[in-house]
Design brief:
The chain has about 80 residues and is mainly alpha-helical. The chain has five helices and no strands. Helices cover about 70% and strands about 0% of the residues. Belongs to the SdhE FAD assembly factor family.
């Protein structure tokens, strides 16, 4: 069964706000609310893959404490900017 775009975005928004650490809940849920509806399928694929990463790693990438792996570099830069607004 194929997931509809609407359900996929709802699932990713929920996953963004129910992370392992509160900081990532706040950061990713803010980004998801602002950005997911406008993303194309490849952007959603990348964000979905990012949601499978470890919260401690994500937090270090977003805050610049660790180098972001190349597939996620642009997305993490966008998320970091959203968080700073």
């Amino acid at each position: 069964m194929t997931e509809t775009r609407e359900n996929r975005i709802k699932r990713m928004k929920m996953r963004s706000m129910r992370r392992g650490i509160k900081e990532m809940d706040l950061i990713l849920s803010a980004y998801a609310e602002r950005s997911l509806d406008a993303m194309d399928d490849s952007g959603l694929d990348l964000y979905d893959a990012l949601l499978h990463e470890n919260d401690q790693d994500l937090y270090q990438w977003v805050t610049g404490q660790a180098k972001t792996p190349e597939p996620f570099a642009g997305l993490i830069a966008e998320i970091s900017q959203t968080f700073q607004k």
